[in-house]
């Protein structure tokens, strides 16, 4: 990862410090003409693309910008469904373990084994803050529409196994679970998100700074092997529902449901969060978290109809654990996302699949000088009571839409659903150019 950008235009000029490190391959030319690495990075920032890739993305999503907005909106900075008790002591997790139902007792025992596997209570208790820097590659891999959304009108987009996808880098900062900040840049588009302990917020190039509804919640990326203490506290109140093998590794399955009051706090007059469930698969051999999965179902209400349902399922495979200052941290993984729309008539059903692979390049703990001021929300942050949450009718979803292309994704069929940030308005024309 490059943290400095050389000044190729002025040989004696100072290097530019990058806010978010850029993957090294962006500076390396793969073409016979050996273009300067600066040109390669500018191409990356300008999101240039081969004619074949461009035609594929236009056919499915309406353009590459559309795909990037979809990816960042869904995979970029998702949140865990419920707050984590940051005051919880890891030792208290196993108190009165015998006085609870067998499913809850088993879950607490598995969590205790996980704490030991990641370094123990003493090592976790010594961590006050952390920093992580890494690389991502993400792509929308498939779109299907029609009845069943599996066998009709299936369009393959891109495959990460073939080196396709958008490349980017990210930086994470955390001071206790309730204070965190993310900066993620993918193909020149930057998304920022964070929490100051009172409100969780997000900022994108196509959307003003806005707060999530309900109490602040942790970033999902921390639960993907980067923050073992939050993972243990999250699953402390889970239940064990069985076992299953994952990549030839026998695992226990822990399940956690968001409570109705939490779901109501995240709902609004137009968007109802029906359920949000989290599953954690812990290796029986090592005790480590191998897979994290969550699924949420919401209904978008619109006048004159029963509403449209969206089901989003994210499944993350967590790999390459390494010890950093006595704590086992995952340094690689892969996330697969399924975004399913149903309701109304069967022809309007659709399913979009997305993928992300990530690697962690640097991790450090107890960062000196990292104060609470580093996690303040943007000055232009809009809370729901200040006008955010009810989107005006002239505001559209961030997708380029055409109704004359039968295989192209329409805004009413695929959208980066973020149930905590906005309500959806499906009444406007499908012919609008949303950029």
UniProtKB/TrEMBL annotation:
Residues 417-435 have a biased composition (Acidic residues). InterPro entries: DUF620 (IPR006873). It comes from the Eukaryota. Pfam families: DUF620. Residues 410-435 are annotated as: Disordered. PANTHER family: EMB|CAB81597.1, LIPASE. This is Boundary of ROP domain6. It comes from Hibiscus trionum (Flower of an hour).
